[in-house]
Amino acid sequence: MSEVQEVFDLYVEHLNGLDERHIFGVDTGRKYWKVWMSFDQYRPNPQRTVHAFVDRQTGDVHKPGSWKAPQPNGIRYNLLKDLPTIYSKADVYGSYLYKF
């Protein structure tokens, strides 16, 4: 298992510990992991939204641009360099992915 994969697993575990009403999961693509959030999980067809995209090679965390792709120039953090910052700022709504 690569270092990026190990740190990514910690990131998703952290997100899942933020709020018991929101569940985070991952879809693996060719270049990115798509981190999605599910709410209303007690309904027959729970809704999912994209929380972030993470580059599988570099660990760059991207703000989502759509369900299928990250936003162009949307790199906000790097999991290998910025994990403590992500832990302190992350929330279930993804507001830490917006530039202020």
Q: Please give the radius of gyration in angstroms.
A: 13 Å
Strands ordered across the widest β-sheet: 1-2-3-4-5
Please describe the biggest sheet, giving its number of strands, its sense, and whether it closes into a barrel.
5 strands, antiparallel
- β-sheet strand percentage: 35-45%
Overall SS class: alpha+beta
| Integer tally of domains | 1
According to DSSP, the number of beta strands is: 5
- Categorize the overall geometry: globular
What fraction, in percent, of the residue positions are helical?
Answer: 25-40%
Order of helices and strands: HEEEEEH
Count of separate DSSP helical elements: 2
Secondary structure layout plus pairing:
Blueprint: H1 3-16, E1 23-28, E2 32-39, E3 47-55, E4 60-64, E5 70-78, H2 79-89
Antiparallel strand pairs: 1-2, 2-3, 3-4, 4-5
Helix pairs in contact: 1-2
Description:
There is one protein chain. The chain is an alpha+beta fold. 25% of the residues lie in helices and 37% in strands. It has one domain. It has a five-stranded antiparallel β-sheet. Helix 1 packs parallel to helix 2 (79-89). The longest helix has 14 residues, at 3-16.
